[in-house]
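ok posting inputs for the 4-fluoro-L-phenylalanine job
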Amino acid sequence: MQDFRPRDSWTSRIGVILAVTGSAVGLGNFLRFPGLAAKYGGGAFMVAYLCAFLLLGLPIAFAEWSMGRYGGRHGFNSSPGIYRLVWKSRIAPYFGILAMIVPVCIYMYYVYIEAWCLAYSARYLFGRMDFGADPSGYERFFAQFVGIHAHGESLSTPGEGLLGSAVFFLILCFVLNFTLIYRGLSKGIEWFCRWAMPALVVCGLLVLIRVLTLGTPDPAKPDQNILNGLGYMWNPVKPGTTFWQELANAEMWMAAAGQIFFSLSVGFGIIITYASYVKKDDDIALSCLTACAGNEFCEVALGGLITVPAAFVFLGPQVVQNPPGTFGLGFMALPHVFSQMPLGNVVGFLFFFLLFLSAVTSSLSMLQPAVAFLEEGLGLHRKASVALLGFITALGSTGVVFFSKDLLALDTLDFWIGTFCLYALAAFQTILFGWVLGAKSGMAELRRGAEIHIPESLRYVIQYVTPVYLFVVFGFWLRQNIFAAGAEGQPNRLRQLVTDPVAAAVMIFVAAVAVLFGLFIAQAVRNWRRAEAAAEEVAI
Ligand code: PFF
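and the output
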């Protein structure tokens, strides 16, 4: 008879808090957030961001922590198992397909960016990141390194990315991630987060001190000083607009909501799995708040004060506003900035090393839910489940690298999995907690063992405000990106699936992984039923 009880657990409360914070703090904090805040105008964006944090992020995080601990108490660590426990319906566990493919598919491209961070920090360490005063040197290096197309030069054809030096670092990252996952929850994830999280905060503070003491590096350009850099990022109103005009921008509200999900790692089903390993009366309310606060510190105080102000001071507002491509600010503009900064090599190393550490603690959290499911649902041993997941993700990452031209595979996965499926999964979990488990029972679960006071109003927020907010944002997003797409130079994502072979191939692969997990879940349900029937017989 298979043993379905949790096999692994956190060794301490600080361990789980650091692991959840580690999942949350990642590239989203240091690269994605500053870009969005600068794009939409710091102050106005922060209003939308704060609303999304209080009405979407925090309530769904509470819901995931509560359902996770509840599931763990009943012997389940995986989302399919916990969904089935909470919702006694035959289809409930199959929503777990989403909770498996969202983190696993995000891992396939996230780990590639993680590899760039490792490579950049290694190059800084060995003093091999100076490409002169001309920005094009940094852009060309990045394009060649990653195997993308830059500035109209056809630098890459499909498959060329596989020959790039980024692949070496990608393999290193794969080995590191899977070794840690193989070592298990406490000896792998918790152990790594325990030293990586403090280390990355120290690196971040050192870089921050350097950036805030930059003053006016070029006396010929007195406006490009650090105070103006901070103002550029944070002033509530951009020249030529009003605060209210900026606040009326629906796209900004969607971006803020998306950022909250991505940054806090909520809605992915990851926190459910992590929280399922806590002790049965651990104070999850406080742990949840601590992890969210830790993430916001890294996002707003470190991410928000480093990247954009530094780029502003050396490169001016034009580059910050129109960085060269999605990853332009981090991987092209900042190395250019560091090359002009006193102690730039040290700062460059610290910055990319901190990015790398934060990415590892996040990518580990994308793998654990699937490993937990394979072990608990199919009864696989750790070695087998790690090997199977390693094979699936290696195939996916190879695809991402193979189609690195214009980063199309990465972009397709980010759109359909990292945004569309994420919204769908977050909506499902919100309804599951607020309406199926019931906000009242859910709140009782959250309050058990909690030393802090949880206001009753949270119940109504979770039951009414969060779902309505989520559905409105999701509706707007669908309208803009799916139904009315194709305008303003945006690709029509649905048509792209038919006309673009790369996007089609990526989604066929995702569908195959989804079918595979669907079959695994069907088998897991049979196993669970058998175990439950046997337990009943013993009880009789
Ligand atoms: N929260 C991470 C970040 O801010 O970079 C990203 C992330 C982690 C996304 C875990 C998805 C996930 F499952």
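notes: Residues 408-447 form the longest helix (40 residues). The CA atoms of residues 192 and 286 lie 22 Å apart.
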